[in-house]
Amino acid sequence: MLLAAACGFDYQPSYQPTRQPSAPRPTKHPSAACPYIAPIKESECPSFLDIVNCKDPSLGPGDLCEGDGECGTDKNLDNCSDDEHTGADIYRV
């Protein structure tokens, strides 16, 4: 860089720094039948992925659910996997 400055070149980085990833935001309340939910991190995935659907009325705060596009869930989230399931879409109420 000093050599470039001595030769009359202006050193300008050619990249832009990336932003820090933000925490997932809870989904909007699509209907009265759907709870507020947010995707979990891969490190929070349960060992058993065959869990209730995110539209299940028995869900309470802190419960995990599996989304299939209902209640604003993303069918392609694929944040959890195990030996039986690949690409489960797991959310926390």
Which structural class do you get from the secondary structure elements?
little secondary structure
Low-confidence stretches: none
Terminal-residue CA separation: 52 Å
Helix content: under 10%
- Radius of gyration from the alpha-carbon trace, in angstroms: 21 Å
The strand count comes to 3
Q: How does the overall form come out from the CA principal axes?
A: elongated
Write up this protein.
This protein has 93 residues and is largely without helices or strands. The protein is built from 1 helix and 3 strands. It has one helix at 2-6; strands at residues 38-39, 64-66, 90-92. It has a 3-stranded antiparallel sheet with strand order 1-3-2, with no helix packed on it. The longest helix has 5 residues, at 2-6. The mean pLDDT is 80.
Summarize the structure in short.
By secondary structure, the protein is low in regular secondary structure. It has one helix spanning 2-6, and strands spanning 38-39, 64-66, 90-92.
Keywords:
3-stranded antiparallel beta sheet; 93 residues; little secondary structure
